[in-house]
Amino acid sequence: MIRLQNYLFSKTQPIVIKFFTKPICSLCLEAKEDLYPILDEIGTDKFLVKEINIDLEENKEYYDKFKFDIPVAMIDNQVLFKHRVNDLDKLFYDLESKLKPK
């Protein structure tokens, strides 16, 4: 039983990226085209992208907050980018730095 517990606790959970978007958003599509290949390169098991459609009623708080800023990508309330990915190398570095122990 101890080995099983150690195994379960040794598995690291992916880091959640909250990606605020809406269905008809050309900047959101461009940002996805930049973000997902970088995640593929780093390792898809290390990050989990949670796409949040701000147009849905249950996400009204995010609509009020981000309606003029989408797309927005965040990890733990830290903005990775908003409006667009301006620097792919910086995004890659920022994501990799999230994997380093503190």
From TrEMBL:
Pfam families: Glrx-like (PF05768). The keyword Cytoplasm does not apply. InterPro entries: Glutaredoxin-like, Glutaredoxin-like_YDR286C, Thioredoxin-like_sf. Keywords: Electron transport, Transport. It comes from the Eukaryota. Belongs to the glutaredoxin family. PANTHER family: GLUTAREDOXIN-LIKE PROTEIN C5ORF63 HOMOLOG. This is Glutaredoxin-like protein.
